Amino acid sequence: MQGTAPRLEIRNLTRRFGGETVVDDVSLSILPGQVTCLLGPSGCGKSTTLRMIAGVDMQDSGEIWVDGQLICDGAFTVPAEQRGIGLMFQDFALFPHMSVSDNVAFGLKGTRAEKRVRVEELLGKVDLMRLIDAYPHELSGGEQQRVALARALAPRPKIMLMDEPFSGLDNRLRDGIRDETLALLKDEDAAVLLVTHEPEEAMRMADEIALMRDGEIVQRGAPYNIYNAPVDMEAVGFFSDINVIRSTANGALADTPFGQFLAPGVADGAQVDIVFRPQHVGIDFDRGGKGPLPTVRDGVAARGLVQRARFMGSESLVEFKMDDKDAMISATVPNVFLPKVGTPLWLTIRRDRCFIFPAN
What separation in angstroms does the CA of 73 have from each of 53, 217, 310? Predict the structure, then answer.
């Protein structure tokens, strides 16, 4: 998609309610066929941003462009129904008195025969042709979601906006329906903006993630980069559980139970947080916690005493109290590992997966 012009571009969108800034100077661009996830906690301004793009709400300032054409700048605005934008929300909002066929055809123009061709094409893609004459109350939640998707895509929108569309589905259904939805969206070549508060969903579906907090986009990039090069500790913690060891910088170094860490640019005496995920904590099962300090390639090992161990299904979560500084550390271990409380074990951490931030 290199060299392709953005299908959707928003520039410096701002929205205020009652003197409070809900969306603050947000800019994004999305290419045809690209899925961008606007990810963040509830109340951070994601849905408000979506409503402004759709034309349901009006921004206080900023611009919205589609295929290089200005469609709204706060003074001039193209009506919502003329923007070529499809909408899909958590509430599928199917018309209960209409059949599946009529629901999908609702926004279509053309002859009855032309509408039927498009309806059958989309229902075939979502594997619901057998239910073409059924009514919404006869469908499962997953089937209703696929009908709502087909209806939103029927007019061939240039842009698809999706606001938590999978949150009402059973966990067992979500992954399959997400994958089917993603395949269909890619096939239609629409630019997709998906709003979600679930990091797993964003990682699974997005080509690009825009991480939003308090009305602002704080980081934007490919899922791998967002996960492995987070902008701050809050960004690390949004994607997974974290361990945090606080230390004090001295000579651009910070002491921890696992050895010294580089703290470039941090003034002597300033506090820093060393942040790492439980899956990046290693356990020396052979040596246990008694005997000499193990030599490790990356830093040093530290001894911890087991405080609690829980089996989580595919892995076990073990919590340790460290000998040094009374720090608490969590580690995840594949399969079943449930040591007794008080068991001493040597721990190591992957330094290439540690992040150092100025302490808040």
Answer: 11, 20, 54
